[in-house]
Specification:
Structural class of chain A: alpha/beta
Largest interface: A-B, 70 and 70 residues
Number of helices of chain A: 13
CATH topology of the largest domain in chain A: FAD/NAD(P)-binding domain
Shape of chain A: globular
Distance between the termini of chain A: 67 Å
Largest sheet of chain A: 6 strands, mixed
Strand content of chain A: 25-35%
Oligomer: homodimer
Chain lengths: 450, 450
């Protein structure tokens, strides 16, 4: 093939989306993906569901390298580490080969941050990021009774539910004084924590993990001075952008410690755009849609969206990522929580005390069986009255509403305009005649006026 | 009480919302609701679900007149017909009383249109609009085997599913060549019809009902020259604004044969706003959010929204209804269909051939059990590229997405901006990593460009 040579480093959501979109946009291009992973094109978000038996490792991995080669005309080089990138020469060295590129997409993702404490390298101490991690953990879990999860973020909670469902004694240890810190408000997170506690998961809050104890193998975890038995320890303590490759190219790293990107996902070196080099996914920082300035949006859905833009631009076609409200949702056995835009806590970092509106309704008509409570919280900027954040807790149907409020945030709609212009469809089995989102907007408006 | 006197005529969704909001906005006001109905504050949309035993008549009716009197300080006069309204004197005569008003809200709703055919007044020929209708129909259904439903709109289909679930032989007879005509596109409606046919419901299309046959009682229905056995006939052939009261006041009736309203739901007489008189719900026409000009939005959710505005304005507080995309959704035993804005058919009446985008995905991640296909269709104005309509068919989770697309339509977002600015939350149990709505937007954009 004599077309454009496009190299993608990384085979996660961002990398595989970029590769596929680049090939779609320019079928003549020679597209190569280089990855350290052995499995590709799977959703790491799905790993917890394997532990409780809802799905299998095989089902998780959608396509293998051979499929991409044969069906999509994309070369995927697995289990291969990139040893050098030469920006001048435009080439990537990986394994014993050199790959020349016209366009490069860096989608190297992130690594789980494990606090630098004593015992963190003992056997039976895990992170969950790849299918490889997951399979190793699965082995260790076989004989485990007590599992300690470090971190009550969404990944930690999903793992906690899965392992509780698999019959383990689960203790979640969190440094902050609330679950899902940073992105959820304490009142919303408390509903989830309560639900999970009633399902038998133990929470230890405001307790930084100090030490993993054991000889060879983990036996217990010390947090805030107390020991908790642990046959297996899982760290779900957040992720950090993996900057090894960006540093090889001396790309600009921003204040959030991730690769700085332009709207087309192009990267910078010393303040200038680097021709032909793009980045996408957990490795980048990008524009926030609620504040002037960058944000991290380390979500699978964002990675796909950025990957599509990076791939298209790498193929020489126009595309733009825009700005992100970073919508997220987490389903936890009978309760779902989702959010978008800023939480009250995040807003306070910017010196903003948002006005809030909050209402609890139902997911179905009052008289229709099977519904659950639904609590919607909306946050508005007290100066502009723009809606800047939303969170929902309910037994069902959170995702569509979070996407709804994400568009509202991204379009810059004020509370007043939302109250006038938003509408809801209605059917007794699917919601209330005045959707709880609109009822929460009524409350928000009252609090803005009052 | 020496406060403002507010009279509301009608106790449906619009009337009761107006009354409650008026009292909330001005607790000193004397609020009176006058209604011909015996039951108040119920959702007529729920009636089909009683027939299949999912809920009860008692559960349907949320509050009675005594509750409103005692708990909300609102007088509700039931089973009472308004015989005169004097706009000059500002008084309503009903039963043997005269009610003076400072502000009047007309929420008289609509009546089911029954085609003027032979046999329409036979016994066992019904419409479903009130709990009273429903209870009468319930009696008649006891010994019925064959039920013919005239009209394949959402009400007709909901009734068909309920009665099929209750063990009846159900035939739906529709004049047009598709189910859910006018508001759904043929391709989307066909998926629903196919699903219902496989559940044992018979459809007879392009067949205007000519006659109900029987002596005293309905025995069969003739449509397009063929006879269909019918122990019970239900007409679900659309509704018409009930203009009896508006005509007493000589209010302006618009081109859609409904009461013309301003954004605050105030009414007109000979082109001038009538001070203190408002209307809401099925009786009005209001501004469309997708075309310049009026639309009918005869939906429970719209009635509530308009009722809140009318009630607030009747109490002397500011409020505005804005414009409507008339979002709707219909849940039919394993399949849901919803829409918002214009259908392709409706657009064609305005001389517009919309560009469309359509994608079928899943309601959950591919490997997560329990998901169903989800088809999303988006329509854009070929001139401005504004998104003007959307329809979704899936086994679950349609409502939140229809509300999402309603805000997108009402904010005037173009296909290009939507593709850049919209985002989705993601969790394997609740959607795909790229939500099917965004995938449909990709297809729409491709069709706009191509």
């Amino acid at each position: 093939m004599s077309g454009r040579r496009i190299v993608v480093i990384g085979s996660g959501a961002a990398g595989m989306s970029a590769a596929s979109e680049a090939k779609r946009a320019d079928p003549e291009a020679a597209v190569t993906v280089i990855t350290e992973d052995s499995d590709i094109a799977y959703s790491p978000c799905a790993i917890p569901w394997v532990f409780e038996g809802r799905t299998t490792w095989d089902a998780l991995v959608m396509h293998d390298a051979a499929f991409y080669g044969k069906e999509r005309g994309i070369e995927v080089v697995t289990e291969t580490s990139v040893s050098a990138v030469d920006g001048e020469k435009r080439s990537v060295t990986a394994g014993d080969r050199e790959y020349a590129y016209d366009a490069l997409v860096i989608a190297t993702g992130s690594t789980v941050f494990v606090p630098p404490i004593e015992g963190k390298d003992l056997e039976n101490v895990y992170t969950i990021k790849t299918v490889r991690d997951g399979k190793r953990l699965e082995q260790a879990l076989k004989d485990a009774r007590h599992v300690v999860i470090g971190g009550a973020g969404v990944i930690g909670l999903e793992a906690a539910v899965a392992l509780r469902n698999a019959g383990k004694e689960v203790t979640v240890i969190e440094m902050m004084d609330q679950a899902i810190p940073r992105i959820a408000d304490p009142d919303m997170a408390a509903m989830v924590q309560e639900h999970l506690e009633s399902a038998g998961i133990r929470f230890v809050m405001k307790a930084p993990i100090q030490k993993v104890n054991g000889t060879g193998k983990a036996e217990s975890v010390t947090a805030a001075g107390t020991d908790y038995p642990a046959d297996v320890v899982i760290f779900a303590t957040g992720v950090r952008a993996d900057l090894r490759i960006p540093r090889m190219l001396e790309l600009d790293i921003g204040q959030l410690n991730a690769v700085v990107t332009a709207p087309n996902m192009q990267v910078y070196r010393r303040g200038r755009l680097v021709p032909g080099v793009f980045a996408a996914g957990d490795v980048v920082q990008c524009q926030s849609s609620v504040v002037s300035g960058p944000t991290m949006s380390q979500l699978g859905s964002t990675a796909v969206k950025q990957g599509l833009v990076a791939g298209r631009c790498a193929a020489g076609k126009p595309a733009s990522f825009g700005a992100t409200a970073s919508p997220w949702v987490c389903s936890l056995e009978g309760i779902e929580i989702g959010g978008t835009g800023m939480s009250a806590g995040l807003a306070s970092w910017y010196g903003m005390t948002p006005v809030s509106g909050k209402t609890t309704g139902l997911t179905r008509a009052r008289y229709y069986p099977g519904g659950t409570p639904m609590t919607v919280k909306l946050l508005a900027d007290p100066a502009s009255h723009r809606i800047v954040g939303a969170q929902i807790v309910a037994g069902e149907d959170v995702t569509g509403r979070i996407n709804w409020l994400t568009s509202v945030i991204n379009e810059g709609v004020t509370a007043e305009d939302f109250a006038v212009r938003a509408e809801n469809a209605y059917c007794p089995p699917t919601n209330m005649v005045r959707d709880t989102v609109l009822a929460a907007a009524d409350d928000l408006l009252k609090n803005i006026e009052g």
